[in-house]
Amino acid sequence: MENFTFYNSTEIIFGKGEVNRAGEKTADYGKKVLLVTGGGSVKRIGLYDRVMNAFENADLEVFELTGIEPNPRISKVREGVDICLEKEIDIVIAVGGGSVIDTAKAVAAGVCFDGDPWEMFTMEGEPDEAIPVGVVLTLAATGSEMNGNAVISNLETEQKLAIHTPACLPVFSILDPVNTYTVPKEHTVYGIIDIAAHVFEQYFSHTESTPIQDSWAEGIIKTLIKESEVVLENPEDYNSRANIMLAGTMAINGLLSIGKDDDWASHAIEHELSAIYDIPHGGGLAILFPNWMKYVLSEGTDKFVQYAVNVFNIDTKGKSDQEIALAGIEKTREWFNSMGAPARLADYDIGEDKLEEMAAKAVSRGPLGSYKVLEKEDVLEIYRMSL
Ligand code: NZQ
Ligand code: ZN
Asked: Where would I find the Alcohol dehydrogenase iron-type/glycerol dehydrogenase GldA domain in this sequence (predicted)?
């Protein structure tokens, strides 16, 4: 294990009915609130009214930034920053999934940033100041509710870039699994795959002797496999939604990668896809991840053997390490397929024409990953395997 420091300041408020506390928690940070929401689901499920009631009870003054789209745009961030500066907003509250939360974070950092908000994403280094952000989560996927990341798209430049800063850690996140009952089947599946991908990015590592981190990771994947079956059968199964929600939060709050190398190449490779084709992040990962696994296997089978045995109980008798590892990868693809996830780029009508361009953009800030360090040709090969 390597040296590490771990710090995560987000207060997690988990469980049924906890949204009623949104007012009192927000009021700790001031009176003027910017409420950020997406394309309408929060109104349809009645959550908007509950949050507004809680705000009213706490005597808060509310301004709104709404209509945040999946793969959220920098144009909305600019709009939010302008409102915050004009109205002297004290705290930004996101009610939604990752796209809404990431927009809220980028707005909060943009308020303190001297320059156009897009520069925060393209500059060397990270923004180190933001006004407070609070979250009411409606979709289990990105873990944005307990990390300092924000991923924003710029349609003009066809880029999708991230900031990672402790300044953007939400001050609190309210996680009521009931608020995820209405997530449509395909987004439930994309969310589960995104969570699994976050675990994989940290699990597949060459750092030796990390049994605690490994068993946490394997436990999350096994939970997701079990609960994905339950939730797709019954979207209103409380315990299943709760376990998936907790999985999402724990998968990318920093814990799984303490004391070890992590990878994140597949995320960078996927972000090029969703930047250009505007496909769901989890859908892109479903296509790419098993191919990344196959591609990097040449760098060492041990971790993949461990994964195959501990997660899928692959029978090892008479099999080489390579065969066991491949069986685990195949099981991963089968699990994704069984949930109805896309398996090939062709499922999104994506052909060969932009693969070169995407591979070049993916490595434009340097090679990717650590399990196997990927150059442009490697990334291109993973795209080709995914056609
Ligand atoms: O816009 P509304 O109407 O709210 O509908 C949303 C949206 O269409 C809907 N939805 C959300 N909660 C719902 C619901 N529908 C019914 N009932 C509910 N309770 O779901 C759709 C997808 O929402 P979105 O927020 O886009 O999904 P997700 O949470 O998967 O976020 C994806 C974005 O996060 C980025 C992705 O790249 C992508 O841009 N990521 C952010 C990360 C982070 N901040 O740490 C890490 C991830 O790896 C990822 O890159
Ligand atoms: Zn992700």
From this structure: 10-177
